[in-house]
Amino acid sequence: MHTTAHLPSSTARGTGHGAGHEIGRRLRALLVGFLAAVAGIAGIVLVPSTAHAAADTAPVASSFDTQVLAATNAVRKRHGLRALRPMACADRYASSWTRHLASSDRMYHQSLRPIMRSCGLRTAGENLAWRKPSLSATQVVDMWMKSPGHRRNILTGRFKYLGVDAWRSTDTGRVYAGQVFGG
């Protein structure tokens, strides 16, 4: 699944929840960022929980994110586009959303407007994928490139930043991967 939004006239597809849900999600994203920063300073590995995530999820290897970024940039380079840079803010949204998807074992897009506001972006896009029992970085980028909407997000020249993450549902074994693009 993919979605793209631009300010000021966005037609972003999202969850359809009200302002209270958006505020709660922002607070969770801030908490996740804070906990990650504290863990980095303390030198420990911490997997923060969110209100949506239950004990039925497991993180996918941290190298997955780096490999998806590298595979995405290799595709962009072949098409004459500049490399996307990692963005911590977009990464937090990719992480919290894919964890939520794995926890609920459902696939749908998050609203992009909060991402644009929170991360200071003028445009944003999202690619999502799931697969069972495993999903490599190369496989997911290949899958996205075979889909016109996902391909469009990967090859959009306005995008400068990328957040990536993936979580596994321990109930079903499905891996949920997501890219959050920003420009």
Description:
The chain is of the alpha+beta class and 183 residues long. It is 44% helix and 20% strand. It has 6 helices and 6 strands. Strands 1, 2, 3, 4, 5 and 6 form a 6-stranded mixed beta sheet that branches. It is globular and about 40 Å long. About 28% of the residues have low confidence.
Instruction: Kindly name the structural category.
Output: alpha+beta
Question: Using DSSP, what is the number of strands?
Answer: 6
Mean pLDDT: 76
Report the portion of residues in β strands. 15-25%
Percentage of helical residues?
40-55%
Task: Tell me the distance between the termini.
Answer: 20 Å
Largest sheet: 6 strands, mixed
- SSE string, helices as H and strands as E: EHEHEHHEHHEE
Principal-axis shape equals: globular
* Low-confidence regions: 4-55
Topology readout:
Blueprint: E1 2-6, H1 19-42, E2 57-59, H2 63-78, E3 85-86, H3 88-104, H4 113-119, E4 123-131, H5 137-145, H6 148-154, E5 161-169, E6 175-182
Parallel strand pairs: 3-5
Antiparallel strand pairs: 1-4, 2-5, 4-6, 5-6
Helix pairs in contact: 1-3, 2-5
Q: What's the short story on this structure?
A:
The chain has helices at residues 19-42, 63-78, 88-104, 113-119, 137-145, 148-154; strands at residues 2-6, 57-59, 85-86, 123-131, 161-169, 175-182. With 183 residues, it is an alpha+beta fold. Strands 1, 2, 3, 4, 5 and 6 form a six-stranded mixed beta sheet that branches.
